[in-house]
Specification:
Layout (H helix, E strand, L loop, with lengths): L1 H33 L3 H17 L4 H12 L4 H11 L2 H17 L5 H17 L3 H16 L3 H11 L2 H9 L6 H14 L2 H13 L2
């Protein structure tokens, strides 16, 4: 009898996962279809919340929802799906890590990173969770600042133009001179000669 009960538990768990996955795909597709219709979107959001609350395990549902949203090729809808399955803090940590790592490793340019960040803010606003956008900004700053100086400057140089970075570094009045010099030397190794000259001219002009 004990083995039979164990088997029933396993089968019930598998059934729950399958149902969650199917519902996630269905509601993910509904989210995509309703995104530009406020009335329809409210109904879909309620359905997502209700369905998710009824599940004992949400993993399969969440994955399927996000996968369906991602297939739309609309980053804002993808971000919305993440927000619907995560707390503000978890959303911010995951997306910040994605953006910072992509910039550090050259997997995205500043336009792509900016578009992803803006999409996070847009999705947060649309879902009435503006604080998630602010939390995302803070998480990006914190994660970038926690890197070694050379890696920090790789991220910053990938995230903005040489002129903008020069102006921003010039405004870091709280930083000590040695720290600034280390950052400048790191950028000398990262930038081309032309970009470094643009950076240093902007830096000096903004002191």
């Amino acid at each position: 009898m004990k083995k039979l009960l164990s088997l029933l538990i396993v089968l019930a768990t598998l059934a729950s996962c399958s149902s969650g996955s199917d519902d996630g795909t269905r509601l993910g597709n509904a989210l995509v279809a309703a995104w530009n219709d406020s009335t329809a979107l409210d109904s879909v959001l309620n359905a997502i919340t209700t369905t998710r609350d009824d599940l004992t395990f949400t993993g399969s549902f969440d994955e399927a929802l996000i996968e369906a949203a991602t297939k739309s090729d609309n980053v804002t809808i993808e971000m919305a799906a993440h927000l619907l399955t995560e707390s503000d803090e978890n959303f911010a940590e995951r997306q910040a890590h994605h953006i910072v790592e992509a910039l550090l490793n050259g997997k995205c340019d500043r336009q792509t990173a900016t578009a992803r960040l803006n999409a996070g803010h847009e999705a947060a606003e649309r879902l009435g969770r503006a604080q998630a956008g602010a939390t995302l900004d803070a998480a990006i700053d914190e994660q970038a600042a926690s890197l070694p100086i050379n890696d920090q400057m790789k991220v910053y140089s990938a995230a903005t133009t040489p002129a903008n970075l020069g102006a921003a570094l010039a405004r870091e009045t709280d930083a000590d001179k040695e720290d600034i010099e280390k950052r400048i030397e790191a950028l000398r190794a990262i930038y081309s000669t032309e970009d470094f000259n643009t950076f240093i001219t902007s830096y000096n002009d903004n002191l």
